[in-house]
Amino acid sequence: MQPVEVFRGDGPVVLGVPHAGTFVPDDIKARFNDTGLKLADTDWHVDRLYSDLLPGATMVKANFHRYVIDANRDPEGVSLYPGQNTTTLCPTTDFDGRPIYQSGMEPQTGEIEARRLAWHAPYHAALQAEMERVRAKHGVAILYDCHSIRSVVPFLFEGTLPDFNTGTNNGTTCASAIEAAVVACTQAAEGYTSILNGRFKGGWTTRHYGRPAEGFHAIQMELAQKTHLATEDTPFAYDEAKADRLRAHLKDILSALENLAPSLFQNNTQGANND
Length: 275
Hints:
about 35% helix; seven-stranded mixed beta sheet; alpha/beta; single chain
């Protein structure tokens, strides 16, 4: 099993897909309890949801499950949301706070580092390479990090999550024009709810790669899974009708980002000339 797959395009948009993979090595799977084996916290079908929406987009997809190691967590183990419930670099609980390992079989420090080298590092090496390739070609690279989560997860947040959750770490990870364009699309999506920098402000990936002054822009989209799944529980089936309706709006978002790229490059160039 290759840790990461890259579907290379020639456009300015890079799609990061860190949590749609379901592969768990046998030696790890043997230590999971029934909760862990359910793999409930997968970003189910997100790669399919975004597939072929934007000709020329590059997709970088992690094939391993987030329970092996979370590709959207700081490799140093620093919390993304200090003071709030969250899961760790190598999770030992699910999104409901329940253990996913049989008692005493959780990974320890040495194993966590081995997993980082085997899975987390290759994913980010591939993502970094694609961001640099795209910026070299277009002058800018726009990372759109693709995520989904159950709409009701009391351990992580109160109430029901909006359908579209856009994260830019409070405007620091991308140009304001990118944030504004995505928000305009989500607010115009009839029948859907949306929020900017709510519970999900962008994970480690968005914060790490988002360096607008250098031509690297990053934005995260966390979708409520009720927007494209038949049910937010086993078997987590893809709902074609729901997904097709949603994909029309996702296509608008990605097209808007692609259309912004030339002006972002021009603005960066002018800013550099004025320094």
